[in-house]
Amino acid sequence: MINKLSGWGDTIAAIATAPGIGAIATIRLSGVDSFSIIDRLFPSKKISGQKTHTLHVGILSLKGKAIDEVVVAVFKGPKSYTGEDIIEISCHGSIFIQQQILSACIEEGARLARPGEFTQRSFLNGRMDLTQAEAVADLIASNTKASQKNALNNIRGGFSGQLKEMRDQLIQFAALIELELDFATEDVEFADRTKFYELIRHIDTTTTRLIDSFQLGNVIKNGISVAIIGKPNAGKSTLLNTLLNDNRAIVSEIAGTTRDTIEEVLNIRGILFRLIDTAGIRSHSNDVIENIGIEKSLEKMKSADVVLYIFDVNEETSEMIQQQVNAFKEAGINYLLVANKSDLDIISPLTLSGETIYHISAKNKINIDQLTNALYDTTVQGTLEEDSSMVTNIRHYEALQKVKITLTDIINGLDQQLSGDLLALEIRSCLYYLGEITGEITNEDKLDFIFSKFCIGK
Fold it and tell me: What is the full DSSP assignment across 367-399?
């Protein structure tokens, strides 16, 4: 278990804004020497004597040589992001100036921060729990309204609040059951088994809902991969261009034009769909490059979340499509059947028992909305409701599955009227797994791994 320390006794510094040239950049300092360092670099005013949460304009310099005119923001611990004294220097966005200021801070006693170290200090100083800290990284990486809303809800404690309530209630009953063990010879019962049973059932229901939310949560966080598969000249690249409303892929009447996979992103109702245009699949080709493209197409098809199988409505028969459907089902591939060029005169209408075929014209943009709606409805199960907690992290998901197992064991134990000492063991296991999620139970190696995925400066 990690002790929540007041810091490491040193001061860290990093550029907190994105790499590159911009109008403004921010360099952040956190630690015991933040104020003494800025006092030496900012002769315009003694910053250590200023009130917290204030801004100060002046020239920042090193050994009498001016670097830039900056704005210094003061945040005194413990009421700061890390819980320590923080200085944020806003300078002009020149890469050269940013590096000069960072070098000056390091020369005056700071060290370069590790990835995620500011947020790690915030966690260790009790400013947030581990789920909130991980949500910070999710918010930075969010690229849709849905992912932003879910990350923001978790930063505010929506997910961890539910876990804390579950853990606190379990701790109360665990204390009462363990108290019974001290009076085992007197045959007393401090913990009401009926109320305890109701509590465990309630926690089990909440845990199940959170586990079930992972499928949608993972989609919201990572998006959905869609492989556009079909024979040469079926209209795959035309469909990609139509969906993107851009001429992203080369289109021609020559079969085998697409030799390699092309990947682009489409936002449908707040969910990112990663569209993969693939080389046309056919049994025989004398072109070595085309054959390599076909192999890549088959690889993408197997790894995609869903396959759009597009075919020329006048080129393939019902029997041919049925063979492809059977192959998809045998391989466990999720698919949608897309009949392209349906605006032309159809020679023989396609009918496939039990299958929905979406008739479109990729070239003339007919029924494209119907296809995108079907794509969304097929892959996105459930909705993200306002202020609802959604599991998006595989670490949380795996820990919740362990919580679920221990809750089932506790319920079975209550049904079998097990003794208090055996119930206490299961409750401790459940508390352990809940504590792993929020960070009450963890170790330094796990923390280093989690925060190493953050950007430097956050």
Answer: SHHHHHHHHHHHH--S---TT------HHHHHH
